[in-house]
Amino acid sequence: MAKAFFRLQKFLRRTQFLLFFLTAAYLMAGSLLLLQRTRLVLQQGSRGAPSNQALPVPEETGRAGITEPRGLRSPRLPVGSGALQGPALDPRHGPRWLASRNSELRQLRRRWFHRLSSEQEPLQPAGFKARKRPAEHKGTYMGCFTHDSRERTLKGAVFYDLRKMTVAHCQEACAERAYSFAGLAHGAECYCGNTLPAAAAEPEQCSSECRGERGSVCGGLNRLSVYSVEQPRAAARTRRNVIYRGCFRTPENLTDTFPASLIQPNLTVEMCSEFCSKKEFPLAVVRGQECYCGYPTGRFPLRQGADGLRCRGSPNASSAAGGQYCLVYQTPVQDTRCTDRKFLTTKSKVFVALSSFPGAGNTWARHLIEHATGYYTGSYYFDGALYNKGFKGEKDHWRSRRTICVKTHESGKTEIEMFDSAILLIRNPYKSLMAEFNRKYAGHLGYATDRNWKSKEWPDFVNSYASWWASHVLEWLKYGKRLLVVHYEELKQSLIPKLKEMVEFLNVTVTEDRLLCVENNRDGNFKRSGAKQKNFEPFTQEMKDLINRYILTVDEALRGRNFSGLPREYVPR
């Protein structure tokens, strides 16, 4: 017995040494492999991939996506009676082919969105030092004041930058709009105005550090750090952003309609706009020598404009018409009756999607829905640029049910059936393709360069994404449980009626004044501006033939589900 025990002890001792050497060898090999991979990643990161680099796809796919089979260059689509007219479709390129192709494109899209989100600048916690040197403040610190997001004291322009807000950044933005004061709250919100807040707060209550500048104070919880801004030159004030809204019939009761007024001999548009801006009103109304300030309301909705000839010429032209018509201008002051937003207090029982093809105006629709309902919208993805500009639902988990609806570009059966209902937003594919191509190369607000449009990326992009536009609609029509189809063009043309339909579909009740406020702020912060080429036509005839046939397929599918077909302006092109 003792001899057997001794042999077992000897065996275990040898095994311990063996296990020790094997473990050491394993750890050394793992460390070497980790160092090698880290070095490779660092080398790749130092080189940096170009922004227009194509996605890594198999050899049989194109640079910008999966290329069309050769037979797809001239497909034949079936057309029902009463639909948009066109040639017949070869069945192998009909809805079934698009559905199978959609499965392949979903995999490409996921890699596409993953690459976009990884390329975006990561968000940093509050207090991150975004600048090497603190920005130089222009103006005087006026103190800490109370702040109510619903009844704001600084009622001018407002914007967010949850990543890089600084005192100087806010001051410069307010100075460009010719405001006198700039207020910062929560470390990332900037408010402009011409009237200093009346209720002061204790200095220590403004303790939030600016998100983009360590050591600078940007308000606090319901507190504003207010700074005066340098007064711009007189020439800059005359260039203030005043927008002509049109000629309208004068309301019957001017006193009840407009809270502020001014009678001035030789009144000019600039004088009236300046007066209303100082009074913090978004509308300046001119009738002869009379100036009125106010908001769009049920008494003065700004929906039915009069013939411009009735207000033609100088402001006194309206007096010549017996005072029945007036000129209306938009001042830089923001209409704040619909800017308050929050998350749902209880989880939504109905899980609603806001689905669209990329470039179809999903961000704009979210802006309208948030301001109309007062609730944030969520997103299936995470876009840091949108989050930094105030779309706080971007950071919330898309299945939290704390948002009124969830943005998605997905169109697989599984992804669609996760939602109880959906608003399906459809836009002219020609416009959608161009908008998405612009976003791909120049972000949400820019335009792609001539070099981008003339490169091989553009035809590859059209070949891949045109079929995605069609398959996206077809899949949602097939698997969607409860749909509200909204055409981007109709929403843009008839904003209030279409927005009412969307809000009712979301089971939210809103006032007419809030909808008018949304209309007054309809563009939001994501309208492209700049050097847009006039009469720019990037589509070849071959591309048009391909897209037109997809349009006819979608039109027939919509009619088959008892929805109205696509707007006639989609084809021919």
Automatic annotation (TrEMBL):
This is WSCD1 protein. It comes from the Eukaryota. Keywords: Repeat. SUPFAM superfamilies: P-loop containing nucleoside triphosphate hydrolases. Residues 138-230, 241-338 form the WSC domain. One of its GO terms (molecular function) is sulfotransferase activity. The lineage of its organism: Eukaryota, Metazoa, Chordata, Craniata, Vertebrata. It comes from Chloropsis hardwickii. InterPro entries: P-loop_NTPase, Sialate-O-sulfotransferase, Sulfotransferase_dom, WSC_carb-bd. Belongs to the WSCD family. The keyword Repeat applies. Residues 46-96 are annotated as: Disordered. PANTHER family: SIALATE:O-SULFOTRANSFERASE 1, WSCD FAMILY MEMBER CG9164.
